[in-house]
Fold Xanthine dehydrogenase family protein subunit M.
Amino acid sequence: MIPAAFEYKKVHTIEDAIASLGQEESKLLAGGYSLIPSMKLRLNQPSLLIDIGDIPDLKGIREEDGEIVINAGTTHHDILFSDLIENKLPFFHQAASMIGDEQVRNRGTIGGSLAHADPAADWPALVLAADATIEVVGSEGKRSLKATEFFTGLFSTALQENEIITAIRIPIPAEGFKSIYLKFENPASRFAIVGCAVLRYADRKTNIAFTGVADFAFRDAGAEQVISGKIIDDATIKEAVNAALTGANILSDNFASEEYRKHLAGVYLKRALQEVA
Ligand SMILES: Cc1cc2nc3c(=O)[nH]c(=O)nc-3n(C[C@H](O)[C@H](O)[C@H](O)COP(=O)(O)OP(=O)(O)OC[C@H]3O[C@@H](n4cnc5c(N)ncnc54)[C@H](O)[C@@H]3O)c2cc1C
């Protein structure tokens, strides 16, 4: 459980972070709560760690042009205790309260979680359901990626090697929306075995996203199609559960077999839909 030797460099601006990326086998270090364990297991052996934990421009949450902007280095703790998040995006508040323990929430960041793309992480389901945009910047300039294009596989994303996530932009839903995040958690780590995020707009358009279920978090088009625009009742919920998970590459591990995960996903989707009905 000892990482391979590495150099350490602390940077104080996004520009310095980008300039240092691409040198040697470099990796960004944010909270370190995913990267350091993976280095201890020697799954990651960077020769240079670029510490972005003290970049002021990567911290903070604000409202701007009808969106909530969460800078990438904002911790789970700061999201949990943000009044803006609690009032405008209650399911983000709810999800933050469910991540790990206090120590993990104090160090871990939303940007680190999205970049790491753990199939059991919570934030991927939230940014997908919220139709968020992920802002990234690299040596070739800025890009805005829809959350639906961001997660591409097990621990993999559309992020290029020399890019850094700077912020997550979430459109504030119009009055009258309902949102929920529910998860069946690993009792030791609290990572999601199944996590289900639902955002139901006032006009009944409904976004549904799962994490923990498959090799990467995803929007469930089948279930959304059944529910969007309709009244949610026992019949539509049953139909949505039957339509869910089509084409998903369901995980099977020590915690839950493929069959059990499928069952749990149906149960959590049903509960989430009952909550927003
Ligand atoms: C005991 C334990 C319990 C946990 N429980 C949960 C849980 O219940 N739910 C949950 O979702 N997570 C959980 N986590 C994970 C935790 O939330 C991590 O902190 C988070 O996933 C990664 O964030 P970080 O800031 O620590 O990133 P790091 O560990 O510092 O980095 C992770 C990866 O992201 C890259 N990276 C970091 N920031 C950026 C950026 N701005 N741009 C581009 N790349 C970047 C790094 O280079 C690295 O590859 C748990 C972790 C532990 C140790």
User: Anything to note?
Assistant: Residues 27-35, 37, 72, 99-100, 104, 107-109, 111-113, 115-116, 118, 121-123, 164-165, 189-191 surround flavin-adenine dinucleotide (CB under 6 Å). Residues 258-276 form the longest helix (19 residues). The two ends are 48 Å apart (CA to CA).
